[in-house]
Amino acid sequence: MPTVLFETLGCKLNQIETEALAESFARAGFAVAGRESGEGAPAGGRDPVVLSVVNTCTVTGKAEQKARGVIRSLLRAEPAAPVLVTGCYAEVDAASLAAIDPRVVPFPGTRKGELADLAAFLADALADAAPSDASGTDVHRTLGALKSFAARGKAGEGTSFRLSTDTFRFHSRASIKVQDGCDNHCAYCRIRLARGQSVSLDAAEVVARVRAIEDSGLAEIVLTGVNLSQYRSGGDDIARLIERLLKATSRVAFRVSSLYPERVDDALAPILADARVRPHFHLSVQSGSDRVLERMRRPYRREAVLEAVNRLRAGARDPFIACDLIAGFPGEDEEDFRQTLELCQAVGFAGIHPFPFSPRPGTEAWGMRPRVSERVAGERVAALLALGAQGHETYTRRWIGRPLAAVVERADTVLTENYLSAHLDPPAQRPGSGIMVVLTAPGQARQVP
C-alpha cells in the first residue's frame, strides 16, 4: 500500500485534526505513519511514501521556523513525495511556504475540513496510474492531483468540524474538537487571524461523537478548542456541554484542554469537580501584572486568576493546575515580571509553560514599544521554568503512595488523572485502556487492583 506520512506541530486541535485525516487515508486504502516514530506503519517496514502532510502552527516565529525545517527534511527524505502543508501557518503565509520547493502545496487552515475528502480523491487519481506510478515513483501525478484538489475553491464555511474520528493512531487518549476560532482581540495573537471567529459544534453532535468514542473502549476524551470559554450551542455554554456529556455517558472520563481564568465561575467550577472530569486544568494566564494584561487586551485581571484557582481547588481533589505565560511582552518592566513571579508563587502552579514574546505580523503588538531584549526575555523564561519545575516536583511528591486513575500511553508508560507521567513496572495492557496505579516515586508507578 502506498504510505502517507504525517507530522503535527502545535496545539491539540491540530493533533485531533491530523488523527481524523490519517484515519480517512487508512479507510481509503493507504498506509499511514507518523514521520518520526513510524507509528501506524505496517510491520516489516512501509511501502513507498506518496505524500507527506504537515499540520502547522503560527503562534510564534519559532513555530514557523520549525515547520520550515520539517518540510525541508521531508523533501530530502522522501524525494518522490509532495508535501501538503496545512494549518495556521498555511493560512497566514501560504506564499512563503510555496516558495520553499515546487513540491510543496499549501492548503489554508480555514479550509482544512475539506481535507476529509482528499484521501478518496487521491486514491482515485493514483488508481489510474501505471503500476510504477502507483508505487510512488511518479511525484508529478500526485502533485498534480493535490493541486487540482486545492484549486477546487470550495468555501471553508461549515467545514470546521468535518475532521473527526473515534480511531486514534498516534495518541492513546481520544480528543474531540468542540470549538474553533476566537472572538477576542488579544494584542499578540495571530491564531485568531488564522482560524477566524468562534464557531462551535452542535451539542447533540458532540454527544453522538463522544458516545462513539466511549463505545470504542477508550478511557478518556480531551475536549479541545481555541477558546473553550466561547463555546455556544443553542443555550449551551461549556459548563452545560460538560454537564450533558456526563449525563449521556457512564464510563469515559473527560479532560478540559484549556480555559480562560474568568470562565472558571460558580457555574462551571462545580461541574469540573465531578469524579469523571480529570483533576487537571490549564489556565491561559499570560501575565501576573494587571498593567501588562491590559496592554495584551486580555479580558481578565490578576485577581480572576486567583479566584479561578481557589474555585478549582475547592471542588476537585488537589488538581494539577498549570498555566501559560508570556515573558518579555513589550513594556514589561522588572516590577511587572516580579508580579508574575509572585502570582506563580502564590498559586503554586504544578506546571508553567512560559514563552518569550514573539512579535507576529498583523497583530497590534507587532508595533508595540518599548521592546524587551531577547536576553532579558530569555532570562525571565528561565526563571519561570525553574519555578515551574519546583512546583511540579512539590506537587508530584504529594501524590506518592496514593491511588490514581491512569491511562496507558504505552505498555510501560501511563498518564495519571492529574497529569503525571510515570514509567509503569511491570508493563500493563493495551494503550488507551484505563487502570489504577500508585506512584512509588516521581516518574515511577505500579498497577493496583
Could you explain how this protein is built, in words?
This protein is α/β, with parallel strands linked by helices and 449 residues long. The protein folds into three domains: 3-150, Rossmann fold; 174-398, tm_1862 like domain (pyruvate-formate lyase- activating enzyme); 403-448. It is built from 15 helices and 18 strands. The chain has helices spanning 12-27, 61-77, 88-92, 94-98, 118-127, 131-137, 139-150, 191-195, 203-215, 238-248, 269-272, 290-296, 302-315, 334-347, 374-398, and strands at residues 3-8, 31-34, 49-56, 83-87, 104-106, 174-177, 179-180, 199-200, 220-224, 253-256, 280-286, 320-327, 351-356, 403-410, 413-416, 421-424, 434-441, 444-448. Helix 5 (118-127) crosses helix 7, helix 9 (203-215) packs parallel to helix 10 and helix 14 runs parallel beside helix 15 (374-398). The protein starts with a strand and ends with a strand. The model is unreliable at 37-44 and 132-137 (pLDDT under 50).
